[in-house]
Amino acid sequence: MEKSEQDFEKHRVHVRGATLRSAAPGTLHLLPCEIPVNRPAPVGRFFTPAIRQGPDGLEVSFRGRSLRGEEVEVPPGLAGYVMVMEEKAEMPVGKPDFSEGPDDDEQEQPLLEPQEALERDFDHFIGASASFSRFTLWGLEAIPGPDAKVRAALGWPRLAAAIHAQVLED
After folding, report:
1. What is the mean pLDDT of residues 84-113?
2. Could you tell me the strand order of the sheet in which 123-132 lies?
C-alpha cells in the first residue's frame, strides 16, 4: 500500500548560522545505549575520571557494564556540531532572511514580513551548542569494529566526493 503525502508529518529545519561560528569546543562520548533524558549531564564529574587506558584501548564501567572505546577523528575538512532544537516559544514569528553575506558574523538577520508565519508547526530551528573534531566511540565489552555504523557514516563524505568528481577521459 502506497502512502500519500498526507500520511507523513511535514518538517522543515532551519540552522542558525551564527551558532556554528560561536559554538565552544566540547568533549563527546558516543555510548552504546539509549538514555531517555535529553539534557546536559555531569559527565566530566563522574564518567570521565573513571576512564582508564587498558591494553586494547580505553576502558570504563557505566551502570555496571564494561565499555571499551577509542578516540575517533572527524574526517579532514569537516567539523562536528552538537545541535539543539529550539523550543517553540523561542522561535521567531515571521520569515527570516537566510542569506548570509561576509559581514553577517555579529548577529542573526532581522525577520522580514513580520506576522507571516513560516508555517508555525512545520518549521523548526536548530542551533549548535558545541563543536568537536573528535569523539570517543564506546562499545559494550569490545571496541566497535570497522563495520560500526558511525564509521560508515564518517566515510560517506569521501565516497560522495569520489562519485561526484569529474571523470577524466583517456
Report:
1. 54
2. 12-15, 123-132, 80-85
